[in-house]
Amino acid sequence: MIPFFCALIWWTTAALAVGCFYFPKIVGPLTLVLFLYLAWFAYQSYGDAEVHSADNAARILYEAQAGKTPNLPDSMKGVFWMEGNAAPELLITMEGSEYDEERKELRIMSGAPLNWSYNTGKAGWIYWAFLRFSYLLCARLRVRFDPECLQADMPLYLFSCIWAPMGMVWTMKYVSDGVWERNINLYWKPKKKWNKGSYTLRRVIDADGRETPAFAEMMAVIESGEKVKGWFKKTPTQIINGKPGGGACCGLLPGPDAWRVYQEKRRQNNNVRGTGDSSTEASTDDSSSELA
Question: Of 76, 168, 196, 222, which is least surrounded by CB within 10 A?
Fold first, then answer.
């Protein structure tokens, strides 16, 4: 994904440079407007980015999106750990995305708020920035399932209609309850799975908000500090794109981040019910509406 967006940025910059040379009165002002818009988008994106512990990030994603895609098959609900994923990312939720039940197609916005988590550290922030840029281009993963929702291919589209060649083919295959294979095949080796890039999706929080046994396994991998397939460690803290306008500049400007909103709503629910320290699941409905 990163090489594709690097090439896109390079060619766009080259086109603007040529345009400014030959048509300065037209392309010049347009370039200035584009630059100002990109600067605003970068500021907004950095302000909306939040850093949380990995366990809290999983809970935030669940609370924000649970029940938002009611027609989504049960096998895709909850929060999933990208086990064995060598890239600097950790969690994803498919809830909250658009699902076309008739076409059996799930459309996941790349770099969108409250659907993904990324490593902290230099590599993680760079990875986050590229995926956030893809959000500016309305990039969507169109997960197209077979009639039984057991297998799917996953092409990426820009502006919802322009296919983006990524140099690889992404697929999903159902294995068992809460487990999906996420295989990758390179264009030049279409019949051979790329083991270094492929991984497994394992559910760590189920549709009812309960932690699964895989949750503890995920935390153990993080605490071990081992590099996944020799590439990157999974960091104890994760970046998520929070609700737009919240926690500006990573909390330096006013605006509560997603975890604070969730905790405050949970405290209010506890006070209303008079239960003191109730379980996390008790506040699912109210907190998710605040985080959405």
Answer: 196
Q: What are the two backbone dihedrals, phi and then psi, of residue 216, each rounded to the nearest 5 degrees?
A: -65, -35
Are 105 and 142 in contact, with CB atoms under 8 Å apart? yes
In this prediction, residues 242-247 reach a mean pLDDT of: 64
Question: Do 261 and 291 contact (CB within 8 A), yes or no?
Answer: yes
Tokens of 14: 């080259």
What's the DSSP call for residue 112? -
- Please give the Cα distance from 96 to 289 (Å, whole number): 12
Q: What's the pTM value of the predicted model, to 2 decimals? A: 0.81
pLDDT digits (tens, 9 = 90+) for 108-136: 999 899 999 999 989 999 999 989 888 88
Report whether 197 contacts 176 (CB < 8 A). no
What CA–CA distance (Å, rounded) separates 282 from 287?
10
The amino acid occupying position 144 is: R
Token pair for 175: 């294995």
C-alpha to C-alpha distance for 118 and 116, rounded to whole angstroms? 7
3 state SS of 222 = helix
Structure token pair of residue 225: 């500090």
Adjacent-strand bridge partners of 183 = 171
Each residue of 148-172: pLDDT tens digit?
999 999 999 998 788 988 889 999 9
DSSP E strands, 29-167: 49-53, 79-83, 89-93, 98-100, 105-109, 116-119, 140-145, 151-153, 156-158, 162-163
